């Protein structure tokens, strides 16, 4: 649980290791490197001449300078910032790497023009998209997020209930198992044509598809989780006077939770894929739709900008699920950290 | 007279179950064949007494315990608790298994309160949780998770989980089988004093001759599978008992002979 404490493992800073014998808290000259790197980015962008004028270059320089200023402030205040300061120090190699990547990117596109122009553009062009089309992108994030939340919630709940029923009741298993075996392996995207005419709106069709992609792995893993519960747990509860309801709710389900979470992670990954495809194919909103639209118009910077936002959305959703799991399954040993 | 009356008020309210096993036979179906496990077992266990079932590994002792607990039903014969047929599990008969089988997702406290929770008694009888934890010396570990406990502590927690229900019959299936020698010896005397203070009937399955003789008032020696009762040894020795007591050594020799190991000792 203590990843932020160790600030000695700076990947790009191995040559500065003699510094490590110095006391931990105090001004460190290597903390000056991240603001310096961002200042270099701002300087190159401003003073290196470009063959072609790119809009929003000043704003990009201002952004890089602001980042440099904030990092400089954090470097000075670091020793007094406690855990947050340690976190920033831990991130130093990455902060430098990001500035270096942005500088190289700026050089090979705007300054040296090594990469073909309509498909590749300098960072300020991406910034331009966020500044000019931020509202539209935010709207897309909202619709994608809504579709994801609705579909994932419905799929997870139905899949969980289905899995518990299969694992617990022989009758539910008799009828439910063949259906799951027959329908489960079909990729959710194969239902696209069906969903778009069977549902009243493209949005509800999208919810159905995302729910299906989520529900199947959740059902399978919940079922296997409930079925593999140590039978001695039931014996214990029964001798203590437990009812059937208690056995399901307080023994089978908590014991199956680690499996359920594996299913939820698989379901979430499947939900992302289906979400984007559904938005590209029929749902007239969201990031998938925006990607399709940007590609159709040859607006490649819009495409990259939307991809970055999509990555943030998916990564954020996964992080949230990890946080929920860490809280609910704190009793487990040796969990993977995200 | 006064002291006798005082002693009587101090005796606990819980009365041990009067257990009666009558002509019980049991068998398992294995690969289409019938494997007899118990053969015509008859045994009466007086209320509040401590009886040990001693026999070779795999002879069917644990099967008999599951029948007594009501977890399985016998093929033939009947089991009576206080004259009533045992047809299913009941919270008055609690089992402690060889593995502590604590629920890993619950803290020690959460595990111990399980029986109260299952019967909806948490609000009215919560004080029993603390009492049971103190009884087994785990009150400082109430919020620990099972994976943080040593083997002996986990088995103590399992014991507290049983005791919290104020059982009238405590069924123990080799509860100390997996513990190290020192913990084992400590817990043997702890269980005996718990039993003497609480007044429940105790039924202990073990394959350790010394353990049976140290703890129980009667030791029922069983044969190889299908298990029958070979003999019942009365251990008329006051507690605390000592391992090297010459009478116990003689009984040990007798028990080992009954188990077919007389020559090796």
From TrEMBL, chain A:
Listed A to Z, the keywords are: Cell membrane, Membrane, Transmembrane, Transmembrane helix, Transport
Q: Which PROSITE patterns match?
A: ABC_TM1
| Topology versus the membrane | Multi-pass membrane protein
TM stretches of this protein: 31-48, 60-83, 95-121, 141-167, 179-199, 205-229, 260-283, 303-324
Segments forming domain ABC transmembrane type-1: 141-322
Cell compartment(s), UniProt:
Cell membrane
User: GO CC terms on record?
Assistant: plasma membrane
**What biological-process terms (Gene Ontology) are attached?**
transmembrane transport
Tell me any Pfam family this protein matches.
BPD_transp_1
Output the superkingdom of the source species. Answer: Bacteria
User: Member of which family?
Assistant: Belongs to the binding-protein-dependent transport system permease family.
PANTHER family, sorted: ABC TRANSPORTER PERMEASE PROTEIN MJ0413-RELATED, ALKANE SULFONATE ABC TRANSPORTER-RELATED, MEMBRANE SUBUNIT
The entry's protein name is ABC transporter permease
Automatic annotation (TrEMBL), chain B:
Query: What SMART domains does the database record attribute to this sequence?
Result: AAA
Superkingdom: Bacteria
Q: Which InterPro entries match?
A: AAA+_ATPase, ABC_transporter-like_ATP-bd, ABC_transporter-like_CS, ABC_transporter_ATP-bind, P-loop_NTPase
Q: Lineage, please?
A: Bacteria, Pseudomonadati, Pseudomonadota, Alphaproteobacteria, Hyphomicrobiales
Q: What's in the keyword line of the UniProt record?
A: ATP-binding, Cell membrane, Membrane, Nucleotide-binding, Translocase, Transport
Native organism is Rhodoplanes roseus
GO molecular-function terms, A-Z: ATP binding; ATP hydrolysis activity
Q: Which family does it belong to?
A: Belongs to the ABC transporter superfamily.
Sequence intervals crossing the membrane: none
Spell out the protein name for this chain.
ABC transporter
Domain ABC transporter, chain residue ranges per copy = 19-249
Q: Name one Pfam family in it.
A: ABC_tran
CDD domains reported for this sequence: ABC_NrtD_SsuB_transporters
